Every structure is written in C-alpha cells, then in structure tokens.
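Fill in residues.
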C-alpha cells in the first residue's frame, strides 16, 4: 500500500527543499507546489457524477456540472502538516480541514494526542498529511485516532519517508495507502531522515 510518486517537477522542488540554504519563504512555496502535484496521484481514483446543475460553454453547448462523489477532509498532523494544506486546497477547494495535535512523551517516546477536531462530514475520505514519515509513530497514532472516531476511508500523504516509518504504518494499518514524494535511506541517531529535509516544522515557520 505504498506509492512513491515520481515526477521531474517534484524532484526539482525537493532539491530546493533539501538545500540547507533555502529560506522559509521558498521552502513553503515548494512544499505547497509538491502537495499540489501529488494530488494527481493521491486522488486519481476518485469517482465523479453529473449534477443536476447545468452550464453553457462559449460555443453555446449545455453540459451538466461534474462533481466529486467523495467528501474530502484534509487532516494535518500539527504543526508541520499545516504546510501541505494550501497546496491540496488549491487543487480541491471544496475540501474541509481538520487537525490532529500530537506530542512525544519524553519517558515512553510514544506520541500523545492533545487535540483532535474534524468537520462533521458523513463517510468522508480522510487524507492525513505530514511532511515527514520517520519512525511512523505520529502517523500510526493519527490514523488510530481517526479510526476510533469511526472514520474508515483514510489515506496518508507525506513528502519524505524511510522504510522504517513505512513498515510501522503498514504493520499497524495495512488498509491505509501511503503516498510519498521520496523514499529516503534511513534515520540517523537523532531520528532525522537521511538525506531528508531537516526539521520541516522549523523550516516552514522560520522558528530556527
């Protein structure tokens, strides 16, 4: 259930994001652009229908408006996941946004949920987003939190991941499809992805 999305434009933008000299403005622009590119693959299987609403083309031809069957909720894992939202919303303006807040317990090293709020939508497609899939702990916890609230149609979109994180998610939630822009080599001794992007949250928000 893993798809690594390969595209020349994604590779170009990722190379900008990986550069330690890239400033927050360009980092944010690149992450949003990659998120938009990834939408074509993440949502390529969505079903559509012809609504009762009609419109006329410039040549005078009348057509029915085409709309998505699925109601989509974008769910960033706070805080870095927020960086992907605008890029997805640019492609799907009707998508709603929820939030999941997680922090790591310093004793157990396990993620702890401190905030959960999703829009009230019947049978939505939930897309959980986070720039990094490192150990997989936060992603697994976020998916578990959604399932506990009754959400069943869930996908996970990250920019960069490593095999360890992918395996953790696949083991805990084999029904959840994972989408990455890059599958990197490994984690270093501090838990950072190699070659990675550094601390995505700090680089998005300019906090370091």
């Amino acid at each position: 259930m893993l798809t690594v999305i390969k595209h020349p434009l994604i590779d170009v933008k990722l190379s900008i994001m990986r550069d330690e000299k890239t400033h927050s403005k360009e980092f944010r622009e690149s992450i949003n652009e990659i998120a938009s590119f990834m939408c074509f693959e993440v949502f390529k299987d969505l079903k559509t229908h012809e609504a009762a609403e009609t419109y006329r083309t410039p040549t005078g031809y009348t057509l029915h408006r085409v709309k998505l069957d699925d109601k989509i909720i974008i769910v960033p894992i706070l805080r870095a996941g927020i960086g992907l939202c605008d890029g997805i919303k640019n492609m799907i303006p009707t998508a709603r946004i929820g939030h999941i807040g997680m922090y790591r317990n310093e004793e157990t090293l396990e993620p702890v949920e401190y905030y959960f709020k999703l829009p009230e939508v019947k049978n939505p497609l939930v897309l959980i987003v986070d720039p990094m899939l490192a150990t997989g702990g936060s992603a697994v916890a976020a998916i578990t939190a959604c399932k506990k609230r009754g959400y069943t149609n869930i996908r996970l979109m990250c920019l960069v991941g490593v095999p360890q994180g992918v395996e953790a998610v696949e083991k805990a939630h084999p029904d959840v499809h994972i989408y990455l822009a890059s599958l990197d080599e490994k984690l270093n001794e501090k838990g950072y992805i190699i070659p990675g992007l550094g601390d995505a949250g700090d680089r998005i928000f300019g906090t370091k």
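The CA atoms of residues 38 and 44 lie 10 Å apart.
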